[in-house]
Design brief:
The complex is a heterodimer of chains A (about 525) and B (about 300).
Chain A lengths: L1 H11 L34 E2 L12 E8 L10 E3 L2 E6 L2 E6 L5 E6 L14 E3 L2 E5 L4 E6 L5 E6 L7 E2 L5 E3 L2 E4 L2 E2 L7 E5 L6 E6 L15 H4 L11 E3 L4 E5 L21 E5 L6 E6 L15 E7 L2 E9 L4 E6 L5 E6 L6 E4 L5 E3 L10 E3 L13 E3 L4 E6 L2 E7 L11 E8 L2 E7 L5 E8 L7 E3 L3 E5 L4 E5 L6 E6 L9 E5 L2 E8 L2 E7 L3
Parallel strand pairs in A: 1-34
Antiparallel strand pairs in A: 2-40, 3-4, 4-5, 5-6, 7-8, 8-9, 9-10, 11-14, 12-13, 13-15, 15-16, 17-18, 18-19, 19-20, 21-22, 22-23, 23-24, 25-26, 27-30, 28-29, 29-32, 30-31, 32-33, 34-35, 35-36, 36-37, 38-39, 39-40
Chain B lengths: L18 H12 L3 H4 L42 H14 L1 H4 L16 H5 L6 H7 L13 H19 L14 H11 L1 H4 L8 H4 L2 H9 L8 E5 L5 E9 L3 E5 L5 E5 L5 E5 L3 H9 L2 H11 L4
Antiparallel strand pairs in B: 1-2, 1-5, 2-3, 3-4
Helix pairs in contact in B: 3-7, 8-13
The chains are: A mainly beta (about 525), B alpha+beta (about 300).
Amino acid sequence: MKTLLLLLLAFLFPKSAATQNLDPRDLLNPLGASWPTYNGDYSGRRFSQLSQITAANVSNLALVWTVDLGKDPVKGTPLVVDGVIYSSVPDKAWALDARTGRLIWHWENKSRGGTHIGHRGIAMFGKWLFLVTPDNYLVSLDAATGKERWRTEIADLKLDFFSTVAPVIIRNHVLVSPSIESTDNRGYLDSYDPETGKLQWRWYATPDAGSRGAETWPNDEARSHGGGAAWVPGTYDPELNLYYFGTANPQPVMAGQGRLGDNLWTDCIIALNPDSGKMAWFYQTTPHDTHDWDSAETSVLFDTDLDGRKRKLLAQANRNGYFFVLDRTTGEHILTAPFAPNNWAKGLDAQGRPIRDAKKDPQPAGALVMPSEEGGTNWFPPSLDPETGYFYVRVTRSVAVYYLTDTSSKPEAWGGIDKPVQRGPSSIAAIDYKTGRVVWDHPTGAEAVSGLLTTAGRLVFGGDGSGNALALDPLTGRTIWHVNLNERMFNGPITYKLDGRQYLLLAAGGKLYAFALAEH
Amino acid sequence: MFKKPPVHSNLHASSAKTKALRLTNVILCGLLVISIFWPTRSTAQEKKEPNATASEPTNAGAIDESLRSIYPNLPPDQDPASVARGKDLYDANCAFCHGKEATGGNSGPDLLRSVLVNHDEKGELIGPVIHQGRTGKGMPGFNLPDNQISDLVAFLHQRNRDARLRFTYKVPSVAVGDSVAGKAYFDSHCAACHAGSPALAGIASKYQGDELQQRWLDPRRPADVTVSVSLSTGQKYSGKLKHLDEFNVSLYDSQGNYRSFPLNSETKVEIQDPLDGHRKLLEQLSDKDMHDVTTFLETLK
C-alpha cells in the first residue's frame, strides 16, 4: 500500500532538484535531516533519527548562531528544508539561512485584528509555503522570495474567530481550522487546494441537524453554535489514509445549562479521511466540558505489540489531566490513566472516558477544580520515543475556582470565569504507553511552557520555567546538559542536519538559538 | 563525586547525577515559590488574563491595557446614557421576540450571535432591518427616529461586548455557606497561624465577594519566602529568596546583600514559605468548606 502510494506520488509530483522545494513524498519519511512539517513527520512523535549528538557528547554542544526576531515569543515550530529555516509569529514569517541564522526574506501581514496569542507554524508544499494570520487568512507564499501568491479568508473575523494553527498538508490538501474566541460559533476543519486556495471541503465539529450525534444537543440553536475548533495541527497515517486531530471545547464555554448532553463532537479525538473530509471514527475525552479544556492536543501515532498482536495505536495526553491510548484503525479504547492532579471526575466509564462530577461544574459561588483552564497539559508538543516506549509530556499543574456568572437558561459566550489560585509546579513527565503509568516526573518550576523533542542520540530536549534549556536522559529524566537562555522556551525544540553536522534549534522569547557539537 | 562547578556557569555541561534526586523534594516545594517572582500567564487555548494583582475593573469598560496587544480589536465601549435609553427601547419593542437578554425569544433569533449585528459598526446594517423588518420571517418594521435607532444599536453592541469580554464578568454572591461552620473550620485549620492575627481583622472591609475568596485561597502577596543554603564547605547563608531553579539559588541576606550559589549534590537548600499552609489546604479543601470559610470571613468587617 505504501509502495503504491509512493509510486503514485512519484508520478504526480516528479522530484525536483531545486532548493526551497519540498517534495511531498519527503513527508512520508521518518524524521531525519530536515524538519518539513509542524511535527517533523506525520506521526507526531517528534522523535528524530539523528544521533550525532548523544548523551555522551551533549556537554560539548556549542552555540553556533543566534538571531533576534523581535519581541513576540516564538511559539511555533520552525520548518527546516534544504538549508532554510522558516519561522513565524502572529502576522510575521522569516526565511533564515540554517547555517548562520541570517535573514533571507521577511514577510508581514497587515492585520485587521484578531487574537494575537500565538502562531504554531508554517507548512510547505513544493516551492510554496502556507500559513494563517490572526485575522483569519490562509496565505500562500513563494518559499524562495516570501512573496504572496494568494490569500483566502477561512473564517469571519467579526464573529470573533482568529487563526493560529500550522497547516498540515496531505497530498494536495492544505488542512486548517480557525480558533473560536468568545462568540458562540460552530467549529470546523477546512481543506484547501494548494495551487488555487479554493476550498475543497469543510468538516463541521458538530453534527448536522437530524443526523447521528445531533441528539447530544438539546436543540438546533445550541448544536449550530456549539464550538469545537481544531486549533492544533493533527497527525496522519498514510497506510490507513486517516488524519487524526482533536476538537476544542463546546460553546458557551463555562455555562452548560443551555447545552445539556455530551455535545458531540467537541472535546473529541477525530479520525477523518483527508480526501473526502468524512469522519471515520471519534472518541470523546471530556463529554459536556464546562472547564475550557479540549481534545486538541497532539494525537501521537505509534505501532507496538499488544497482547501478541501488532497494533496501530494513538496516544494523547489531554488537557483534562488524563492520558488516552486508542487503536487508531477503529478508535477502540485501550487505556486511560491520569497524569496530572485532577479532582473533577468520579472515575472512568465503560469506554474509558472520565465521568464528570457535576458538582465540579462552574458554580455561582465557585467550585475549586484542578486543573484550571490551563489543563494538565496544553498545545505544547509532546514526544514519543519508540525505543524507550515512553510518551513525554509537558505537565502543568493548576487549581482554579470556577464561577458560573450566567445562570440564565440560555447563556452566551463564556457564561463563567475561572480564577486561578495556584499555578505550578510544572514538569516534564515520561508515561509508559503500555500501562499509562508515569515513570518519571522532572520538575521544571512554576510555569514551563516548552514542547519536547526526543532523538536517537538518547536524549529528551525541553525547557524549564526559568529560561533553562535542558537535555534529559529518556529513561530516568536525569539532567545531562543545560544552558540558561534567560527566557522561557515557548515552542517545540527541533533538530536538523546540514553539512554533516546535527543542529539543535531552540526558541526562547523571540530569539532562535542553534547549537551543534563544537567544530574547532 | 562531582567537583564543585564554577560559581558563574557558562555554556558548559552541568553534571547532576544525584543532585536532581536529592533536591527533588526541595525543588518541588521551592519552585512553587517561583510563581511569586515570575509574571503569571494563562496559557489555556491560550487565554491571557489581566495582571493578577490588578484590582477588579470598576466598570465594564476598564480592560487591562496589557490585553490590547493580544486582543487588538476589542469592541469599543458605548456611551452609557445611550445604552440605558437603548435598553428601555429594546425592552419595549424587541424583547418579546428576541428575548430579554437579546439571546433569542419566542420567534426572534439570538442577536448576539447574529452575523449582521456582529458586522454592524454604527447602525448602518441594523438600522435598515429595524425600519423595514423582515417580512418573510415575521418581523415587522419599526418607525423609530434615528436617535432611537442609535440608542438601540448602542445597547446591542454593548450587550455583545459585555457577553464576549469574560474579564468583565461579575461574580454573584459567594457568601452562600455557613459562617458558624466556617469559623469552626478556621479555628481548626487556620488559627495556628492566624489566631488573633491583627492582619485578618477587618479583612472583609478590604476585600469583598469573590476577591475575598480568591485572596484567602491564594494570598498572592509577595510573601517573605526565606531560604537557608548550606554549602559543602560548611558555610551557611540565609535570607529572603530571590530565585530558585534546578541549577542556582539566589537570596538577599540580612544586610541586603545579593548572594547567588550553584546547586550541586552537596548543597542543601531549605525553603520556609509562610504560604505553605494555604497551598496544602488546596489539596484537601471541599467546596462546602470553601464557601463556609468565605462566609465566615465576610463577617470580619
